[in-house]
Specification:
With 654 residues, the protein is α/β, with parallel strands linked by helices. The protein contains 18 helices and 19 strands. Strands 13-12-9-8-7-6-15 form a 7-stranded mixed sheet. A 6-stranded mixed sheet has the order 5-4-3-2-1-14. A hairpin with a 2-residue loop joins strand 6 and strand 7. Helix 7 crosses helix 8.
């Protein structure tokens, strides 16, 4: 047996900042070396940041990455760190690659470099290029076709990059074939709900398949619509977790590993394997000059704690990496703006958060007091700008009524927050959530304005859960809960007309969010949902609202992905689109429902919602007197259906 002290640098690079990322790598290599590590691994494309998207197609950027790597290797040696082997993700180009149809220009590579004593001693190119969800790597890279195995202190260490681990065979199988003593995987794996459980199962399975321990390092931090959670892990071939980093935190995870000493002749030719000898002198656990180090194993977090941390990190990094120092948002007294305000205070500090109350003639007294209460609890900057006079001025200049007049209120607020942004350099935060965005429940150039939308991928029901969790977390620490209880408990309303509530024109959010989860995230259709026991008229209308709001979602600010499928990079549908889900006639059965139950009615091809009202040229989704229509007669609610979704007789309560 031989020993290696392995350091996994779970760091937060910035896309395009080659010099800053090189400095980051030098700093964390020094930390690893100071703790006696023999090898330190950095995440996928750490030197360039990830994902770099179409920057890959710029030959100057590829060349800059290659040059930065050479300088970094020299600088590490100058820092006195040359004996510590560093594995660094970077952007490379295939050598002597001839131009070929259908391959990215210049044949860029998603690569890892092994740096030792001031030189790049080995390179590895990612084999499996993901082309699903948020990934477009076939657009950018060409795949590698050899496994790189590096001998470090007498241990053969095989390299792999992210997707290489997710696909069967490939480098994992090759590592076993090459008799590797350790499989080292560098990653840029973005966060989504419950991915930590999926990731642990994956690395456990792959370690068994490789026949050796597996060390998995992942980046941390926000990058536009993605947030990386870290969650770096080391497991042995039996699946036992040896070390696990805290998620969403920059750190260096150091672990001592007892590994099989290399026995393969490194000069022997192994097809598909590139062997490089770095150091041959073995180290035993008993003669390590730094003694032993106990590796931490992070405790699991609750779903709410995990999601909340992801949103905070995403917001913090979007603000800081884009050069902002302060943010501004409208405070309505409702739950969405309250949660966004608290997220912002946790991300960048209350002293950098500006909340603006903009009451209209229809704003309730409790909404105004809840906004002021939130500001007092959090300590953010708070001011009030009444908008009634501004709305009246618009109305005096342009003859608009009904829905169009209601939308003027939202657009006046949008103009005000953008004016404050221009004057003071604040980043405007949009406060809409995924449920509202799905059905078009927002006003373009009104409440949809902004530079970042923290709740873009958070359903309304999750907004309430996160708010309750954040208050409970404060109480556990002996602090005052930051969100007023009345903001959580009161019925949601845009307050653009007297007595308005969201439930006037939408199903209960527990029902709506479940439908959206199936339709948006799982791509299930009308027949599937009706088969699950939902009323056909309700499902049909929700799906129509989602489909018709695509143009509005294209204009919404970016926001962090936390679900399996988020609006934006994950879900790409045409705006001009006449396809609609329909239910075969044979499957339509008479409704069994109360005579008083309201139903949806939608407008034209751009039917959307604007805080309870549609755009001026669109008809509103309004409750109307019930009349017979087609709907299945489920014998019982589908498994896991929300309690509010169906009555015992199969009818809906709303």
């Amino acid at each position: 047996m031989a020993a290696l002290r392995v350091a996994l640098a779970q760091v937060n690079p910035v896309v395009g900042d080659l010099s800053g990322n090189a400095a980051l790598i030098r700093r964390w290599t020094a930390d690893a070396a100071g703790r006696g590590a023999h090898v330190v691994a950095f995440p996928e494309m750490c030197l360039t940041g990830y994902p770099v998207e179409d920057l890959v197609l710029r030959s100057g950027f590829v060349q800059a990455s290659r040059g930065a790597l050479d300088r970094l290797a020299s600088d590490l040696a100058s820092d006195g760190l040359g004996e510590t082997v560093a594995v660094i993700g970077y952007l490379d180009r295939a050598p002597q690659e001839a131009p070929r149809l259908g391959r990215p220009a210049g044949s860029p590579l998603n690569a890892a470099a092994v740096v030792h004593r001031g030189q790049v001693v080995a390179r590895y190119a990612k084999h499996h290029l993901p082309n699903y969800g948020v990934f477009d790597e076939y657009r950018y890279f060409v795949p590698g076709d050899e496994l790189t195995v590096v001998r470090i202190h007498g241990v053969d260490v095989a390299l792999a990059i992210c997707e290489d681990l997710w696909q069967d065979g490939g480098p994992v199988a090759a590592a076993r074939y090459a008799a590797a003593g350790l499989l080292l995987v560098i990653n840029g794996s973005p966060y989504e709900r419950n991915k930590d459980d999926v990731r642990l199962e994956l690395v456990t399975r792959r370690a068994a398949q490789a026949g050796c321990p597996l060390a998995y390092v992942n980046m941390v931090g926000g990058q536009d619509e993605l947030v990386f959670d870290g969650d770096s892990i080391v497991v042995n071939e039996a699946g036992t977790v040896l070390a696990r980093a805290e998620p969403f935190e920059e750190m260096c995870l150091v672990v001592d590993l007892d590994l099989a000493a290399a026995e393969v002749d490194p000069t022997a030719i192994t097809p598909g394997v590139d062997r490089v000898v770095v150091t041959t002198q073995t180290v035993t656990p008993y003669d390590h000059p730094f003694g032993t180090e106990s590796a931490p194993i992070a405790a699991p977090r609750s779903a709410e704690a995990e999601i909340y941390a992801a949103l905070v990190v995403a917001l913090r990094d979007y603000v800081s990496k884009n050069g902002f120092r302060t943010v501004v948002l409208g405070l309505s007294g409702g739950i969405d703006s309250a949660l966004v305000a608290v997220l912002a205070c946790d991300a960048i500090g209350a002293e950098h958060v500006h909340g603006i109350s903009m009451p209209s003639a229809y704003s309730s007294a409790h909404s105004r007091s809840d906004a002021a209460d939130l500001a007092e609890r959090t300590g953010l900057h708070y001011s009030t700008i009444p908008i009634a006079a501004l709305v009246d001025a618009f109305s005096a200049s342009v003859d608009v009524r009904g829905v169009a007049a209601e939308n003027i209120q939202a657009r006046v607020r949008g103009v005000l927050v953008m004016a404050l942004s221009n004057e003071h350099g604040h980043l405007v935060l949009a406060t809409g959530n995924k449920s509202e965005l799905a059905v078009g429940y927002s006003t373009i150039y009104g409440d949809a304005v902004g530079g970042f939308a923290p709740l873009k991928d958070v359903h309304k029901t999750s907004v309430w859960r996160l708010a309750r969790w954040r208050n409970a977390a404060a109480e556990q620490r002996g602090e005052r809960p930051p969100i007023p209880a009345t903001s959580i408990s009161k019925p949601p309303s845009a307050e653009l007309r007297p007595g308005q509530q969201d439930s006037d024109s939408l199903p209960p959010y527990e029902v709506l969010d479940d439908i959206l989860d199936h339709y948006v995230e799982r791509d299930r259709g009308l027949a599937d949902l009706v088969g699950d026991g939902y009323a056909v008229t309700m499902v049909d209308e929700v799906l129509r609202l989602v489909d018709r709001a695509e143009y509005k979602r294209r204009q919404f600010p970016p926001g962090p992905k936390i679900s399996f499928k988020a609006f934006g990079r994950d879900r790409r549908l045409p705006i001009t689109n006449r396809w609609r889900e329909v239910l075969p006639t044979a499957e339509r059965q008479p409704d069994r429902r109360p005579e008083s139950r309201p139903e949806f009615r939608s407008g034209g091809p751009q039917a959307t919602r604007s805080g309870g009202t549609p755009e001026a040229s669109e008809s509103q989704v309004q409750p109307t007197p019930s009349e017979p229509s087609a709907q299945p007669q489920p014998s019982s609610p589908r498994p896991n259906a929300p309690v509010a979704a169906l009555r015992a007789d199969g009818s809906t309560p709303w």
